[in-house]
Amino acid sequence: MIEKKISEYLENAHEIFLPGVSLDVVILGYSENAIRVLLLKLKEYNLWALPGGFIAKNEDVDAATHKIVKERTGLEKLYFNQFHLFGKTGRNASFLQESSHAAKLSADARNWLNQRFVTVGYFALVRIDQVVPQPDILSEACDWLPVDQLPATILDHHEIVNTAIGHVRRQLNYFPVGLNLLPERFTISELQRLYECILNQKMDRGNFQRKILKLDILVRLEKLKTGGAHKAPYLYRFDRDKYQHKIQHGIGFI
Fold first, then answer.
1. Boundary residue ending a domain (158, 180, 203)
2. CATH number of the structural domain spanning residue 31
3. What's the confidence (pLDDT) of residue 28?
4. Coiled-coil ranges per the record (predicted)?
5. Strand-pair partners of 40
Protein backbone atom coordinates (compact mmCIF):
# COMPACT_ATOMS: atom_id res chain seq x y z
CA MET A 1 0.00 0.00 0.00
CA ILE A 2 2.80 2.41 0.93
CA GLU A 3 4.73 1.54 -2.24
CA LYS A 4 1.64 2.35 -4.29
CA LYS A 5 1.26 5.70 -2.54
CA ILE A 6 4.90 6.60 -3.27
CA SER A 7 4.51 5.76 -6.95
CA GLU A 8 1.28 7.76 -7.18
CA TYR A 9 2.89 10.72 -5.39
CA LEU A 10 5.83 10.83 -7.79
CA GLU A 11 3.71 10.15 -10.88
CA ASN A 12 1.29 12.98 -10.14
CA ALA A 13 3.80 15.50 -8.80
CA HIS A 14 4.24 17.30 -12.13
CA GLU A 15 0.48 17.89 -12.34
CA ILE A 16 0.00 19.06 -8.74
CA PHE A 17 3.09 21.05 -7.78
CA LEU A 18 4.94 24.13 -9.01
CA PRO A 19 7.92 23.32 -11.25
CA GLY A 20 11.46 23.87 -10.01
CA VAL A 21 10.59 24.93 -6.44
CA SER A 22 10.73 22.95 -3.21
CA LEU A 23 10.56 23.57 0.55
CA ASP A 24 12.93 22.43 3.29
CA VAL A 25 12.16 23.12 6.94
CA VAL A 26 14.76 23.12 9.72
CA ILE A 27 12.65 22.21 12.76
CA LEU A 28 14.71 23.02 15.85
CA GLY A 29 14.15 21.90 19.41
CA TYR A 30 16.12 21.91 22.66
CA SER A 31 16.70 19.07 25.12
CA GLU A 32 19.50 17.66 27.26
CA ASN A 33 21.54 20.85 26.81
CA ALA A 34 21.64 20.50 23.03
CA ILE A 35 19.97 22.13 20.05
CA ARG A 36 18.41 19.36 17.97
CA VAL A 37 16.95 19.17 14.48
CA LEU A 38 14.17 16.89 13.30
CA LEU A 39 15.39 14.65 10.46
CA LEU A 40 13.88 11.88 8.34
CA LYS A 41 15.66 8.58 7.60
CA LEU A 42 15.01 7.65 3.98
CA LYS A 43 13.79 4.14 3.19
CA GLU A 44 16.12 3.19 0.34
CA TYR A 45 19.28 4.95 1.48
CA ASN A 46 21.53 5.32 4.49
CA LEU A 47 20.80 9.03 4.34
CA TRP A 48 18.75 11.53 6.32
CA ALA A 49 16.74 14.49 5.09
CA LEU A 50 15.00 17.59 6.38
CA PRO A 51 11.21 17.62 6.38
CA GLY A 52 10.16 19.20 3.13
CA GLY A 53 8.23 18.86 -0.05
CA PHE A 54 6.75 20.78 -2.92
CA ILE A 55 4.26 23.63 -3.27
CA ALA A 56 0.89 22.98 -4.84
CA LYS A 57 -0.01 25.24 -7.75
CA ASN A 58 -2.90 26.76 -5.79
CA GLU A 59 -1.12 26.94 -2.40
CA ASP A 60 0.54 29.76 -0.47
CA VAL A 61 4.19 29.07 0.42
CA ASP A 62 3.62 29.70 4.14
CA ALA A 63 0.58 27.41 4.07
CA ALA A 64 2.63 24.63 2.46
CA THR A 65 5.32 25.07 5.13
CA HIS A 66 2.78 24.98 7.96
CA LYS A 67 1.33 21.76 6.55
CA ILE A 68 4.77 20.13 6.37
CA VAL A 69 5.63 21.04 9.97
CA LYS A 70 2.22 19.98 11.26
CA GLU A 71 2.45 16.59 9.50
CA ARG A 72 5.90 15.90 10.95
CA THR A 73 5.30 17.23 14.50
CA GLY A 74 1.55 17.13 15.08
CA LEU A 75 1.65 20.78 16.21
CA GLU A 76 -0.96 23.23 14.99
CA LYS A 77 0.34 26.46 16.52
CA LEU A 78 4.04 27.07 16.01
CA TYR A 79 6.64 29.68 15.16
CA PHE A 80 8.31 29.42 11.75
CA ASN A 81 10.01 31.85 9.43
CA GLN A 82 11.67 31.92 6.03
CA PHE A 83 15.44 32.46 6.21
CA HIS A 84 17.16 31.68 2.89
CA LEU A 85 16.78 30.54 -0.70
CA PHE A 86 19.12 27.73 -1.79
CA GLY A 87 19.73 27.66 -5.54
CA LYS A 88 23.15 26.30 -6.44
CA THR A 89 23.32 24.69 -9.87
CA GLY A 90 23.22 20.93 -9.75
CA ARG A 91 20.93 20.63 -6.72
CA ASN A 92 17.83 18.64 -7.61
CA ALA A 93 15.84 15.64 -6.47
CA SER A 94 18.59 13.19 -7.47
CA PHE A 95 17.77 10.75 -4.67
CA LEU A 96 14.23 10.47 -6.08
CA GLN A 97 15.49 10.07 -9.63
CA GLU A 98 17.63 7.11 -8.55
CA SER A 99 14.93 5.41 -6.47
CA SER A 100 13.34 2.14 -7.48
CA HIS A 101 10.11 4.03 -8.15
CA ALA A 102 11.55 6.39 -10.76
CA ALA A 103 11.93 3.73 -13.46
CA LYS A 104 8.19 3.08 -13.32
CA LEU A 105 7.25 6.70 -13.94
CA SER A 106 5.98 8.28 -17.14
CA ALA A 107 8.26 10.48 -19.23
CA ASP A 108 6.48 13.61 -17.98
CA ALA A 109 6.98 12.62 -14.35
CA ARG A 110 10.67 11.77 -14.90
CA ASN A 111 11.26 15.07 -16.69
CA TRP A 112 9.67 16.90 -13.79
CA LEU A 113 12.00 15.17 -11.32
CA ASN A 114 15.04 15.80 -13.52
CA GLN A 115 14.59 19.58 -13.62
CA ARG A 116 16.68 21.96 -11.55
CA PHE A 117 15.14 22.78 -8.17
CA VAL A 118 15.68 25.76 -5.89
CA THR A 119 14.46 25.33 -2.34
CA VAL A 120 12.98 27.84 0.07
CA GLY A 121 14.46 27.38 3.53
CA TYR A 122 12.30 27.84 6.62
CA PHE A 123 13.15 27.28 10.27
CA ALA A 124 10.68 26.41 13.02
CA LEU A 125 11.15 26.48 16.80
CA VAL A 126 9.24 23.88 18.82
CA ARG A 127 9.21 22.22 22.22
CA ILE A 128 10.44 18.66 21.81
CA ASP A 129 8.23 17.35 24.61
CA GLN A 130 5.16 18.44 22.65
CA VAL A 131 6.18 16.70 19.41
CA VAL A 132 5.31 13.20 18.22
CA PRO A 133 7.68 12.80 15.23
CA GLN A 134 6.00 11.30 12.15
CA PRO A 135 7.89 10.03 9.08
CA ASP A 136 6.55 10.78 5.60
CA ILE A 137 5.87 8.20 2.88
CA LEU A 138 9.49 8.28 1.68
CA SER A 139 10.96 7.73 5.15
CA GLU A 140 11.27 4.91 7.66
CA ALA A 141 11.99 7.05 10.73
CA CYS A 142 11.75 10.59 12.06
CA ASP A 143 13.98 11.59 14.98
CA TRP A 144 15.70 14.46 16.81
CA LEU A 145 19.46 14.65 16.24
CA PRO A 146 22.01 17.13 17.69
CA VAL A 147 22.89 19.84 15.16
CA ASP A 148 26.61 19.39 15.91
CA GLN A 149 26.46 15.65 15.16
CA LEU A 150 24.59 15.51 11.88
CA PRO A 151 24.59 12.20 9.94
CA ALA A 152 25.02 11.95 6.19
CA THR A 153 22.19 13.81 4.46
CA ILE A 154 20.80 14.19 0.97
CA LEU A 155 21.57 17.11 -1.33
CA ASP A 156 22.69 20.25 0.54
CA HIS A 157 20.76 19.61 3.74
CA HIS A 158 23.91 19.93 5.88
CA GLU A 159 24.35 23.42 4.47
CA ILE A 160 20.69 24.26 5.03
CA VAL A 161 20.86 23.24 8.73
CA ASN A 162 24.10 25.18 9.30
CA THR A 163 22.70 28.25 7.56
CA ALA A 164 19.56 28.08 9.72
CA ILE A 165 21.63 27.88 12.93
CA GLY A 166 23.72 30.85 11.79
CA HIS A 167 20.54 32.79 11.10
CA VAL A 168 19.11 32.04 14.56
CA ARG A 169 22.41 33.09 16.18
CA ARG A 170 22.36 36.43 14.38
CA GLN A 171 18.72 36.97 15.33
CA LEU A 172 19.53 36.63 19.04
CA ASN A 173 20.71 40.24 18.97
CA TYR A 174 17.26 41.40 17.87
CA PHE A 175 14.65 38.88 19.01
CA PRO A 176 14.16 36.83 22.19
CA VAL A 177 14.15 33.03 22.08
CA GLY A 178 12.92 30.53 24.60
CA LEU A 179 9.12 30.68 24.45
CA ASN A 180 9.02 28.02 21.75
CA LEU A 181 11.92 25.95 23.10
CA LEU A 182 11.75 25.86 26.90
CA PRO A 183 9.15 24.40 29.28
CA GLU A 184 6.46 26.76 30.55
CA ARG A 185 8.48 27.40 33.75
CA PHE A 186 12.27 27.63 33.88
CA THR A 187 15.17 29.17 35.79
CA ILE A 188 17.43 31.97 34.57
CA SER A 189 20.26 29.41 34.45
CA GLU A 190 18.23 27.17 32.14
CA LEU A 191 17.48 30.12 29.86
CA GLN A 192 21.16 31.08 29.84
CA ARG A 193 22.14 27.53 28.93
CA LEU A 194 19.78 27.67 25.95
CA TYR A 195 21.47 30.86 24.72
CA GLU A 196 24.90 29.29 25.24
CA CYS A 197 23.90 26.22 23.21
CA ILE A 198 22.66 28.36 20.33
CA LEU A 199 25.75 30.61 20.37
CA ASN A 200 28.13 27.73 21.16
CA GLN A 201 29.90 29.85 23.76
CA LYS A 202 29.82 30.55 27.49
CA MET A 203 28.18 33.72 28.83
CA ASP A 204 28.83 35.58 32.08
CA ARG A 205 26.08 34.66 34.54
CA GLY A 206 25.61 38.05 36.14
CA ASN A 207 25.75 39.93 32.85
CA PHE A 208 23.23 37.59 31.23
CA GLN A 209 20.81 37.88 34.16
CA ARG A 210 20.96 41.69 34.14
CA LYS A 211 20.33 41.86 30.39
CA ILE A 212 17.50 39.33 30.28
CA LEU A 213 15.67 40.87 33.26
CA LYS A 214 16.06 44.34 31.75
CA LEU A 215 14.03 43.19 28.74
CA ASP A 216 11.01 42.93 31.06
CA ILE A 217 9.64 39.83 29.30
CA LEU A 218 9.84 37.45 32.30
CA VAL A 219 7.37 36.92 35.13
CA ARG A 220 8.96 35.71 38.36
CA LEU A 221 7.19 32.81 40.06
CA GLU A 222 7.90 30.76 43.19
CA LYS A 223 11.30 29.37 44.06
CA LEU A 224 12.37 25.99 42.74
CA LYS A 225 11.65 23.33 45.36
CA THR A 226 15.22 22.04 45.68
CA GLY A 227 17.92 22.60 48.27
CA GLY A 228 17.70 25.20 50.99
CA ALA A 229 15.09 27.92 50.55
CA HIS A 230 17.72 30.69 50.62
CA LYS A 231 19.71 29.02 47.80
CA ALA A 232 16.89 27.78 45.60
CA PRO A 233 16.57 29.75 42.31
CA TYR A 234 13.36 31.41 41.25
CA LEU A 235 11.26 29.99 38.45
CA TYR A 236 10.13 32.25 35.63
CA ARG A 237 7.75 32.20 32.71
CA PHE A 238 7.53 34.46 29.66
CA ASP A 239 5.02 37.30 29.50
CA ARG A 240 3.59 36.40 26.10
CA ASP A 241 2.31 39.88 25.24
CA LYS A 242 5.62 41.56 26.03
CA TYR A 243 7.50 38.74 24.31
CA GLN A 244 5.55 39.25 21.09
CA HIS A 245 6.15 43.00 21.32
CA LYS A 246 9.90 42.40 21.49
CA ILE A 247 9.75 40.08 18.49
CA GLN A 248 8.01 42.80 16.48
CA HIS A 249 10.25 45.68 17.59
CA GLY A 250 13.61 44.04 18.36
CA ILE A 251 15.64 44.07 21.56
CA GLY A 252 19.39 44.60 20.94
CA PHE A 253 20.39 41.92 23.45
CA ILE A 254 23.83 40.47 22.69
1. 158
2. 3.90.79.10
3. 96
4. none
5. 49, 142
Amino acid at 215: L
What amino acid is encoded at 253 in this protein?
Answer: F
Cβ 146 vs Cβ 36: under 8 Å: yes
Q: Please check the confidence at residue 52 and state whether its pLDDT lies above 80.
A: yes
Q: Domain span at residue 209? A: 188-249
Q: What is the CATH number of the domain that holds 220?
A: 1.10.10
CA distances from 100 to 97, 137, 235 (A): 8, 14, 54
Distance, in Å, from the CA atom of 213 to the CA atom of 201, rounded to the nearest integer, reads 20
Cα 40 from Cα 78, distance rounded (Å): 20
With respect to residue 254, please indicate whether it lies within any of the assigned structural domains.
Answer: no
Question: In the structure, what pLDDT confidence band is assigned to residue 253 with cuts at 50, 70 and 90?
Answer: low
pLDDT digits (tens, 9 = 90+) for 175-189: 778 888 999 999 999
Regarding whether 120 and 62 lie in a shared domain, the answer is yes
Q: Are residues 98 and 195 in the same domain?
A: no
CA 9, CA 70: separation in Å to the nearest integer? 19
Does the pLDDT of residue 98 top 70, yes or no? no
More confident residue, 101 or 34: 34
29 neighbors 38 (Cβ within 8 angstroms) = yes
